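Researcher: We plan to redesign the surface later, but first we want a full-length starting point. Tokens attached.
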């Protein structure tokens, strides 16, 4: 398919306001503790960068990344998932927040959650910028959600189509052209 940018679904302003709210909520929930943010690459890196700056400086913050892939550039996510880059820091005994760009089938998240849980994280929560409701095999609640969106393929603010469009400051629908 050839892909073209469609309408703006979530504006830069709306994203910034929502991320500020999430940062404030995390600051309350984790007051007096330290937090380790685990970003799932690549899509989460912009959300994570903005979110940690919305968290109070009184909370010690640690950041690490995992790269997990499902195969291909197709707009549907395959069920085959594979770890390409693992964490550099140990997470046992830590308060961890997994940071995901978008939860669609939830398979990526389910996989990462189970790995980090088996490694002995003290607490494990999830922050997702976007959720497509109804598709997810991840059956726990998402602790921090930016926006619930319709079942459309979206790009921007870190999310790609075939590695493109991550640099958009807003979130847009991708159209077939
Ligand atoms: P899941 O495993 O199906 O929940 O999908 C997770 C990953 O698929 C996300 O981290 C994205 O990289 C990718 N993905 C799913 N839906 C979209 C979309 O609408 N736009 C861009 N990437 C998506
Ligand atoms: Mg992707």
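Model: Full-length starting sequence:
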């Amino acid at each position: 398919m050839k892909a073209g940018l469609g309408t703006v679904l979530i504006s830069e302003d709306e994203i910034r306001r929502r991320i500020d709210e999430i940062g404030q909520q995390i600051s309350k929930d984790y007051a007096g503790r330290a937090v380790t943010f685990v970003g799932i690459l690549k899509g989460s890196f912009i959300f994570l960068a903005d979110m940690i700056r919305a968290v109070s400086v009184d909370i010690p913050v640690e950041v690490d990344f995992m790269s997990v892939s499902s195969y291909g550039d197709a707009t549907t996510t395959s069920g085959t998932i594979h770890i390409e880059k693992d964490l550099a820091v140990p997470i046992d005994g830590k308060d961890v927040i997994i940071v995901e760009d978008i939860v669609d089938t939830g398979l990526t998240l389910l996989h990462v959650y189970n790995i980090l849980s088996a490694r002995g994280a003290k607490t494990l929560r999830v922050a997702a910028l976007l959720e497509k409701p109804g598709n997810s095999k991840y059956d726990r609640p998402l602790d921090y959600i930016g926006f619930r969106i319709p079942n459309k393929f979206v790009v921007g603010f870190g999310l790609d189509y075939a590695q493109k469009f991550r640099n958009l400051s807003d979130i847009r629908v991708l159209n077939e052209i």
